Every structure is written in C-alpha cells, then in structure tokens.
Amino acid sequence: MTETPLPLNDRFVDLSPAAGTTVLAYDFELTAEAGLKVTRIRAGVRETLVNGVDYVFPTGIGDASGGSVQLGVSSLAGDRYILFGDIEPARLSDFLASRAFDTAKINADLDVLTIIAQEQRRDIERSWKSDYGSSGKNILAGLPETVAKFDEVGNLVEGPSAGEIENAQTYAAQALSSKTDAETAKVAADAARDQALAAVPNAFPLTRSSMKGLPWATTTTAAYLLEPGREGQFAKDNTDLSAVLTGPSILSTAVDPATDTVTSAGHGRRLGQACYVTAAVNGLTPNRLYWFIVVDANNFKLADNFADAFAGTPIDLTGTTNFTAYVHNDPFEGVYVIATGDAIGGANGAIVRVVGSDHEASWWGIAASASAPYNAAAFNSMTALDEVKSANLPAGNINYTNIFIERGGLRLRGQKSATVLVQSASTGNGLTIGTGASEIFDLHLRDFDMWALSQKTAGWAIYAQKLVRSSIIGVDPSSLTRYSSNGNASNQYGGIWFDGYDRVVFDGEIWGCNDNLKANGLAGQVFGAELTIAVDAALGKALNYNLHIAGSANVYCYCEISQGLTGVRIDKAESGEYNREVFIDNEIDAATGSGLHVAADSLAILKIPTLWLASCGTVANNLPAMQIDPCTTVFPQIIATGMLAYNNVNSAVVINACDTANFSGAEFSGNGTGANGGIDLWLPNAGANRVVAAGAKFLRSGNATLGEALRIAAPVTNFAFTGCVFSGSGTQPVNNAAGLSKDKIIRNCVGYTTDNGSYSTLLSGTTTLVVNHGCNAAPGRISISFAGPQDAGAHAYVAPGSITATQFTITYSVSAGANRSFSWTAHHPGF
Fold it and tell me: Does some domain include residue 337?
C-alpha cells in the first residue's frame, strides 16, 4: 500500500482573477465542502460567499493536491477572492474494543487533526502575540461604544468613544492640512528667500555716477542707491530696452554751424528733453546725451548738459551734415540708468530701479530745493515715461516754469496742501494737458495746491485740451487760504480751462483769478462734453467770471460760487455752438454783477432746481441776479423749481427769451434791497415763452421806488401763474401790461385776485347797482343771480361795457319795489 502523508500547507489562497473568471482553484485538501470558506472583496466591500448559492464544488473533495470551485457569477475587474480552510474540529469516527482498528479511519482522523493543526498555526501566525518570555496580559475593556487601548503595562483597557475618535480624526485632518499649508508656505518662503538673496545688493553707491561704473558684467548683481531723494534698489536688466528708452527720431533738414541751429519742421521738442546720435557727425559724439534748446517749432539747438540748455548755451556744431537724433525717454534717470560702456539707447539693457505700484517724483530729482527749470523739465520727463502710471509728488514748494502732460493713464498725487506747485513764469500756462491733437484719457490729479511766484499777467494754472474720463480732485489752483494770506489777491491769472472735454470731474478751490473756471466743448465735438463740478468745490472772488461755460458744453455744477464780478456766465464764445445742458444746484451769492448770465442763443437747457441766488448786483450797475438775454435761434428751456432768489440788490430774474420756463415752487424773497428797488420776475419781451409757476412765493419785493413781484410786458403771451403768493410788494404785486386771457393766466393766487365773488343789494326804488369787484384786473365776465325775492317779471344783467378795472354795474329791468339782493362772481378773463 502506498503511503500518502498530508503535506505542509497554510490552507488558504489569495486570488485576483481577470474579469470574467468563473473557476477558482485552491491547493489544499478538503475532507468536506463545509471545510472551505470563500470571501470576495469587491470595490472595497468584503462579503462571505455561500456554498450552493454563489459557488459549487465540481471536483476536489478528498484530493490532497486541492481542487476548485465554480462561481455562479463571473468575476469583475478588480475583484479579490480569498479561499481558506476552516474544518470543523470534530472526530470522523470512533474505535470499539470489539473490532479491529481500521487504518483508513485512523488515517482520516489523523488527517483531520493535522488539518486542524495547520489551520490553527495559520491563524496563530497572523495574530498579534506577546514575545517569548512575556507574561500574559488582561483584557480590561468592556464598556459599549468605546475602542480598546493598551495601558502602560500592556493590558487592553477601555479607550475613547467613537465620537471622540471622530473628533480626533477631524483635528488630525486639520492639523495635516495646516501642515501641508505650512510646507507650501515654506516652499514659497524659501523661493522668495532665494530670490531676495539673489537680489541682495552687494554695492551701495552714493551717486548714480558711481553706480554706473560698478562691475555689472562680473560681480555686481544689485545695488542700493544712497543718493538723497533718489534712494532705492536697482538691478541689471540685460535685455534690449531700446523700445522703452528710445523715443521718436528727429531727422534734420538743415544744419547751420554758424548759429549751431538744427532745422526739423514740427520737431515737437521742449526744454528738458534729451537725445543721442548713433554716429559721429558735426562734432556730435555717439552714445551720450545732448539736451534740446528750443528755438521755435521748427528749429532747435543742442546743449552739453541741462544747465547749459536752460542757460541757452549750445554746443559748437562743426558741420552741415543732416543727421538723425533719437529722443531719450528717461534722461533724468528716474527708473533707468545706463551702465558705463553700455548703449545709451538701451540696446544692452539698463540698471533698472525695482519699483512697486507707485513712483516717486523725487526719483527724477523733483524737489523743493531744485530750480524751477529743472523741476519742470524733470516733471515733463517723468510724465512722458509710459510705465509711470502713478507718481507721488513730494512736500514743499515745488518751483517750476511750465510743465506738460501729453498722455493719459496717469495719476499724480501730492500731500494735500503740503505740496505746492509754484510757477515762476509770469505768463504762460502752468500745467498744460494735451496738445489738442487727440483725446487724453484717464488722467487723475489729486491733492496738491498750485500758486505763482508773482502776479501773472496771462495764462492758466491748468489748461486741459480734450481731457476725457478724468478727474482733478483736491487740487486748488488758487485756494482761499493763499488768496487771503496774499492780501485778498491771487497770483494766478486764470484758474482752469477745460478746452474740449468729456466726463471730467473737478473738486477744488479757485479764488480771485480773472476767470476761475472755464469750460467748453469743441465745434462739432462728437465725443461729448460732460463736466461735473463737485459739491466740495468752491469758486469765488473772480475778477471776471467765477464759472464761464463757453459753448458746446454740458456742465453739472454742485459747488459754492461766491462773490466776484459774475457768478456763472454762459455763452458760446469758444466753440461758436450753443451749450446743450447746464445744471446748477448750489449757491451763487454776492456777485457784484449778475449771479447767472445766459448770453443770446447760447443754451438749450438750464436746470437750477435748488439754486440759492443771493445778494448779487450793485446799485451802480443795476444788474439783475439772473438774466437771460434776447435770443433769435436757440431759446433755453428753464427748470427752476425750488430756486430761492434772496436779498438781491436789484431785480432777481429777468427773462428776455425762453422756450419754456418753470418756476413752480420757487421762492423770491427780499429782492430789490438797493436804492433802485427791483422786480422778482421780469418778462420784458415776446421772447419769454411759456413761463409758468405753480405755488411760487413772491415776498417783500423791492421798495417804494420799485417793488414788483411780477412784471409782464405787453408782447408776452403764454404764461400761467397759479396758486402763487404775493406779499409785501413795495409798489404793486403784479405789473401785467400783457393783460389776462385764456393763454395769459394769473389765477387762484394770494395777494393778487383775478376771480372774486360776493353778495350786493339793490336799494328799493332804484334800477342800477355799482359793485366793486375787488379784482386786481378787469374780470372777463360777471355772473349774477337773485339771492332772494324779485319783482314780478323783472330781470337783471351786467352790461359788458360796465366792467372796469375796479367796478361793474348791475342793471334791474324795473324800479325795485324793495331792497333786492344778488350774488355775483367775477371771472378771470380767460374763463
């Protein structure tokens, strides 16, 4: 008989079959189907399969080499199957003393024992065991909903609850996230540190000249400039910067060595700009700067340095050869400094200032200590550099001659009244914006004062041409403080002139100039013209006009306008075209001339909803506070609801012409305070069309010399004053030469009666009764009715010819047999 001992086996297999597998093999002996367990792990879910349902045994029971199972459903990709022996620990047979031992049974029982031993060994080997020599430990945990843990001597004891573990896991996840963030931040910090270390200046030059001579090609990586006012870190950029540093080229058409004059038509250069040449010509050396001396629009000279340029000292030109000069964009080296030996135009790169979002004007040498010509030239250089989007002006009195801004996309900010731009020139514009060739977009001036070193005789503090979508805020060309401390006089000649503009906001103070603020669009302007003068602005003491709106304009004025000759002047002097809309919602007071004067044919719409118009005019000039001149082509629409005309010296409002005018809710009070007296609202001629006022108040008008609330000339038609109050007129409330009719209406007013009614009695034995109707103008008709008994067959009437400015006559057809009463109503002529 052949011996077949049971081989050593761990009695399990771990299989990961391909998708679609139905047969799973195992390599150990089974004595019965119940001795095999099958576990499937699918998508992370562990499941024990059932014999006879999920699988069957086609072969292998009792085979020492193993067998297989047949799956009822094919495996899926990623499935894992664990097949392991789990025999019941039971005897297969029993031995009787009366029978012989059966070797087959003995072998079978011994095999079972061996199988059990193998399975126990397998399970013991995958258990968590104490090491040899250690004593057994106790399991002391027992409370529900807790997790066991080992104590300090190794016993298994009660641990935390599931909730506590969940919280701990949450905290651990947060800590892990914080750790990850910290590691990410550390990486960024390390990179920044490395970058910073790479940029750490290894030189600290005292001047730009010494910085230029540093060994940039070998050892110098960065430098910190210590030059006062220009301090800052620089690094070498070796890329070609020609497009940044080189501006327009200028080709000469003639060179005169006798006068050192170069001719180039319309060269467009200014004092303080510089250029270079690329080849030696006429005594000029390549790769160095020469400074422009402007002779006129078509001719210039070149100087060796800026001081010579300002002094008008040119270099000596030695030939007549025409040449090309290239404008340098940063000759004052605010941002770009050319290293010694490098191309002046930036072809070899430059030593470039490390800049944040703002630039400092002091980097170009602009300072209170610098000369006026230098500051002006450096300012022009700074603003011409396209990369300068925002620049801060230093504190102090910054003297200058004339400065120019010829591009947009720029913000200049001072340090409020501590920064003062002081013009040294007695003529010419202080700050010129634009050339008039194209619009200047997005220019914003902020927080500085302007002044002049001495009394100017011409020019504007700011002259802006075609300024669009821009603002000048907190800028005072001539502040009240400086005006007052200068003996109530401004050193400026003109304040600000917006010569062609659209969507511009101004908020500042201008006092005592010839014209404080002037604004006009351009003839045929297609890009609009909207100027907003903010509520915090103040215009006052102008020698001529505080605000001059001079054609093709839309102006929205919310500021205080005080004193001076004329508050607001509206005409078309500049563009030749009428202004589209003017909105004034503020205060105009104490103008010695008119507070508001609209010239002929110069305005389409005037809105003055809450204007305070007060204390304007003088006895000598006898000018009204507000005047609309006669028109022939353009008649303004006037909306003056809520306007208050108060305490003006002469007449308040004189309208010679309008398309419509609405004074509903307006109040006229105490006007005509001077010896001349005055009229609250005066319509002198037929051009005043469709003037209406509902609920207006006319109070304390004029004096005994002239004191009328409303004067209407004979040619005027189409007016209506209803529900108004007339009180305290010096001579009469209404002087209406035009009369009343269906289109000339003054009705339902207090203090001026056009409709009235009452009772009157005809005495016995009489046939006529004269009645005082009490109206301020002759009624159009009288209605009468009997108010009691009448004589048989009698009737009564009012003859039209009996109605006068003060009375009418009731005629009774018979001699009254007794006193007879009548009720009567006097009607407005138009009703």
Answer: yes
